[in-house]
Amino acid sequence: MIYLRANTYLVYIYMNTSEEDTYVVPTSLVMRRTICFYCSREFVADLHVLDYNYGIRHCELHRAAAHRDINAFLHLSGYVWLRDACTNEILNAMCNYLTMSVSIIRSNGDISNGWQIYNGTNIEHKYIRRINGSWSMPMLHTSGITKNVPLDSFRLPQVQTANFAVLNSTFYELLEKSLHILEKGLYESAREQQRDKLLATTQETAGVVSVMTTSGQHTRVLL
């Protein structure tokens, strides 16, 4: 009797939940049906995040919802698109300083010259990321090496000394304000918009399952 009541309650929620009352989370786009993740109508586009095979498939009606849910996912995961950072006056001004050649501290403690902000063609180079609790900027060395550089490392005295000719007091004021903005969350409003909604499960393609390879990677296969 309890089982039947639980099922009845779940059916009631499902039947009384409109498409506007739900949100979705990004998932693998590999071998997914070509339908909107929100309403199962024909899709018009994929929104990619973190990887070109990962994101949300949506119809025209749910384009705005997909953008909201991508941003909410980034907020929870500790990522900020560089393109979105550049729409914020403080973050953009801070980033402009890092387009110059600056010095950073390497993991071995050495100071390394010739680095600048990098917005590369690979999708993984297009984010400011929280790594081990520190917001880190994708940067490129003149040799072609890329590295996620913790922004708070620019506070270190030895790094400030190495950059005295290019980074002035205005940069460090912008740095502190930028770290505060990043910690608060550039996409905070997107996550807030999800709070009164129910999570919708993305429909699985018949015969497709997720498995883990011997290297520890998740992949999708057709049985």
Report mean pLDDT, rounded to a whole number.
83
The strand count comes to 13
Distance between the termini: 37 Å
Class by alpha and beta content: alpha+beta
* Percentage of residues in DSSP E strands: 25-35%
Unreliable stretches covering 5 or more consecutive residues: 1-18, 211-223
The DSSP helix count reads 7
Rg, nearest Å = 22 Å
Main sheet makeup? 6 strands, antiparallel
Count of distinct structural domains: 2
Shape: elongated
Helix content: 25-40%
> Would you list the SSEs in sequence order as H and E?
HEEEEHEHHEEEEEHHHEEE
Question: Which structural traits does this protein have?
Answer:
13 strands; 223 residues; alpha+beta; three-stranded antiparallel β-sheet
Describe it for me?
By secondary structure, the chain is α+β, with helices and mostly antiparallel strands. The chain folds into 2 domains: 2-77 and 188-222, no CATH class; 89-184, no CATH class. Helix content is 32%, strand content 27%. The protein has helices at 2-15, 63-77, 82-85, 89-97, 157-162, 169-184, 188-194; strands spanning 22-23, 27-28, 45-49, 51-58, 79-81, 102-105, 111-117, 127-131, 134-141, 146-150, 198-199, 208-212, 218-222. β3 (45-49) and β4 (51-58) form a beta hairpin. It is elongated. The two termini are 37 Å apart.
